[in-house]
Amino acid sequence: MAAPDPSPVHDAAPAPSGYTMVLPPGWSRIPLRRGTEQAIGRILDRAFAGLPRDRVASLRHELQLRLRDLAGRARESCGLDLYLPTGQMGEVTAAASFVVAEMSLVSAEPMDPAMLVARLVADSDHTSTVELAGTAGTRTEHVAAADAEQGVEHGSRRVDYVLPVPEDPDRWVIVSFSTLGSGDPTDEFAQLLVELFDAIMTTFRWRRP
Questions:
Q1: Most buried of 74, 115, 152, 159, CB within 10 angstroms?
Q2: Residues 179, 94 contacting (CB under 8 angstroms)
């Protein structure tokens, strides 16, 4: 019988259990796995604070349904959290939001994240490499046209960040931003909101168990 290997065994670093990011004033988070209704309730309470409830009941209900619809669609896309501005930027309420989602490749063999990132960049002129929280990923920006047949009434400017989860190459995080700008996704306000979103993404960090 061979002698046991005296070399010490080091456990691999655990994969992140989540993420954190810093939001600017006026933005709110709606968790999509649990606590969705409570978060929507808090947003509505802040929006209508100080107003007679009986006078704003109809408007409050309409906004509640709209937030539920946004959250439901984000959840269907494997969303973890929905973020949106619930305050004003100056005198304007920004028509923008972003969703943090998690995707599993469910591959038989683990894929090298670096190779997949390189392939994503090579396949699109709108995609570039980025590094966030020590992780190499991709950033894609494009303008999506309106599509009435798909129920998309307005064009939008979109930015997607795709990041592999460290120590777990089968899991990826996708952060998807969308804005209508001031009604034109190519206008100056849309560009300002994209720059704000990029600034938010610089605060992205993995949360370790």
A1: 74
A2: yes
